[in-house]
Amino acid sequence: MFYRKNMGSRESWARVIGGALIVACSLTQIGLTLLGLVLAISGVLTALTGLIGFCPACAMAGRKPIEGPR
Fold it and tell me: What residue stretches are annotated with the Inner membrane protein YgaP-like transmembrane domain (predicted)?
């Protein structure tokens, strides 16, 4: 891989679930308007960062993942 994961597993799951909720809410509540589609695309991108475990914005900021107690 060309990247190194910079998210913990809890954050990854939260991003996947949050992204799916953003897509669902934007398309059901706002509909197929320009705003609804822009929000749906942002939800898809959020879910994708959770699926692959890498966030480019966090990498640019130099953020390290924080894992909870094991």
Answer: 4-64
